[in-house]
UniProtKB/TrEMBL annotation:
Keywords: Oxidoreductase. The lineage of its organism: Bacteria, Pseudomonadati, Pseudomonadota, Betaproteobacteria, Burkholderiales. Belongs to the aldehyde dehydrogenase family. Its EC number is 1.2.1.79. Residues 19-478 form the Aldehyde dehydrogenase domain. InterPro entries: Ald_DH/histidinol_DH (IPR016161), Ald_DH_C (IPR016163), Ald_DH_CS_CYS (IPR016160), Ald_DH_CS_GLU (IPR029510), Ald_DH_N (IPR016162), Aldehyde_DH_dom (IPR015590), Aldehyde_DH_Superfamily (IPR050740), Succ_semiAld_DH (IPR010102). It comes from the Bacteria. It comes from Achromobacter deleyi. GO terms for molecular function: succinate-semialdehyde dehydrogenase (NAD+) activity; succinate-semialdehyde dehydrogenase (NADP+) activity. One of its GO terms (biological process) is gamma-aminobutyric acid catabolic process. The active site is at residue 255. This is Succinate-semialdehyde dehydrogenase [NADP(+)] GabD. One of its GO terms (cellular component) is cytosol.
């Protein structure tokens, strides 16, 4: 199938239920990271078009929030059904623009769809409260209502799931939304808008603007009618957007960078730990915010773990995502490859030992060989910065307190993982790790029913789970004299 033949391939933005171009007809070219060739264009929009989208979302709000939750739920459920019906087409489109192996893209489409299904149900359970009053002639109640017009800005590493994880709870809660997807991966977003329209999402309830991130982000954060911003991306941009939202006191959900430690204690099941580390390090070519960034291995098992882990990493097949047996696709851009290579070179220059990989892959382009570095020491950039590539640094540690201190020694606090068979250590370590999410004896933790999010400078709020809808609700206290 050629991407451009897909019935869901749209090269226009989606505002007020209409497909539209930029006012000045300018476009941004989207590239296939596996070939470096252009895949298509999307409108290069700015402030004026964003304002129009906000006006559309504001106009659509009263009718959408007035609908019974069950009606909104049925529409979201239809959207879920359409995603599943078109899963192969959506996965293909995603692999073309994002690069991840097709099987992973299909996994993401199902994961993305699961948020529509989940929040279609949760939207029906937005219960209020009755509070026993402190005096006899009063009745106290709490209503929970959708916050209003929401803005979302999403990244390229999960082009579908990062969108549905925001838009599903927003729409379920009776909010309307303006979304700016990443310029690297707008086609997955636009395909979702087409399916939303087919599912019966009314005009103006879900809008997509593409183009100039600074201009669009500026307008979304400045506009007083936007009551909330949900952002997934880097901590640097999150910090900037938070500041931009301050003058209008918008509610914020931020899913920012991570620096996930993966700790292997000497009582761990080593085979399971190797398997878990491979999965949590190399999926999406290491380009996820919960990807393992630092692997700490206790003295007694360090050499055995390093050998087995590096052997497994070396067998991972690098190739274009559309090739059936590929396990690691290209990195998103040439710049990403340069950054990852820079971290490897820096570590090696400071004495880290290369166990496998270390260079761009022979395929060229932005393909990078799976890389394992041993004898990495505190202070090296590769332990402090988010790697976002298929590079695993191994660090030797002595005891539990020592490794907990090292694991927590970062401004980030998104995901952490550890492997042990000691039941009391499970609790001790889980409680002391300063992270929003902890995987114990597993490297895969994300699903729609659990709260995803970070502490410290990894963000604010939670997505998914029964808590994910809270970020789109406001409480209203109602006091009645009787
Ligand atoms: P990444 O490094 O993963 O690309 P970014 O934080 O740069 O993460 O990008 C995440 C999203 O934020 C993308 O949609 C991008 O276009 C957008 N973005 C980047 N810079 C800005 C900005 N100054 N204002 C608003 N959005 C931005």
């Amino acid at each position: 199938m050629r991407t451009t033949e897909s019935s869901l391939f749209r090269q226009q933005a989606f505002i007020a239920g209409h497909w539209c171009d930029a006012d000045n007809h300018a476009t941004v070219t989207v590239t296939d990271p596996a070939t470096g060739q252009p895949l298509g264009q999307v409108p290069d929009m700015g402030e004026a078009e964003t304002r129009r989208a906000i006006t559309a979302a504001h106009g659509a709000l009263p009718a959408w929030r007035a609908r019974p939750a069950q009606e909104r739920s049925h529409i979201l459920r239809r959207w879920f059904d359409l995603m599943i019906q078109h899963e192969a087409e959506l996965a293909h489109l995603m692999t073309r623009e994002q690069g991840k192996p097709l099987a992973e893209a299909l996994g993401e489409i199902r994961y993305a769809a699961s948020f529509l299904e989940w929040f279609a149900e949760e939207g029906k359970r937005v219960y209020g409260e009755l509070i026993p009053a402190p005096r006899a002639d009063r009745r106290l109640m709490v209503l929970r209502q959708g916050i209003g017009v929401c803005a979302a800005i999403t990244p390229w590493n999960f082009p579908a799931a990062m969108i549905t994880r925001k838009v599903a709870p927003a729409l379920a809660a009776g909010c309307t939304m303006v979304l700016k997807p990443a310029n690297e991966t707008p086609f997955s977003a636009l395909a979702l808008a087409e399916l939303a329209a087919q599912a019966g999402v009314p005009d103006g309830v879900f809008n997509i603007v593409t183009g100039d991130a600074v201009a669009i982000g500026g307008e979304l954060t400045r506009h007083p009618d936007v009551r909330k911003l949900s952002f997934t991306g880097s901590t640097a941009v999150g910090r900037l957007l938070m500041a931009q939202c301050a003058p209008t006191i918008k509610k914020l959900s931020l899913e920012l960078g991570g620096n996930a430690p993966f700790i292997v204690f000497d009582d761990a099941d080593l085979d399971a730990a190797v398997e878990g580390a491979i999965a949590a390090k190399y999926r999406n070519a290491g380009q996820t915010c919960v990807c393992v960034n630092r692997i700490y291995v206790q003295d007694a098992v360090y050499d055995a773990f390093a050998r087995r882990f590096a052997d497994q990493a070396a067998t991972l097949r690098v190739g274009p995502g559309l090739q059936a047996d590929s396990q690691i696709g290209p990195l998103i851009t040439p710049k990403a490859l340069t950054q990852v290579q820079g971290l490897v070179d820096d570590a090696r220059a400071q004495g880290a030992r290369l166990l496998t990989g270390g260079d761009p892959h022979v395929l060229g382009g932005t393909f990078m060989a799976p890389t394992v570095l041993a004898d990495v020491r505190p202070g090296m950039r590769v332990l402090r910065e988010e790697i976002f590539g298929p590079v695993a640094p191994l660090v030797r540690f002595r005891d539990e307190q020592d490794v907990i201190r090292q694991a927590n020694d970062t401004e980030f606090g998104l995901a952490a993982y550890f492997y042990t068979r000691d039941a009391s250590r499970v609790w001790r370590v889980a409680e002391q790790l300063e992270y929003g999410m902890v995987g114990i004896n597993t490297g895969m933790i994300s699903n729609e029913v659990a709260p995803f999010g970070g502490v410290k400078q990894s963000g604010l709020g939670r997505e998914g789970s029964r808590h994910g809808i809270e970020d789109y609700l406001e409480m209203k206290y109602v006091c009645q004299a009787v």
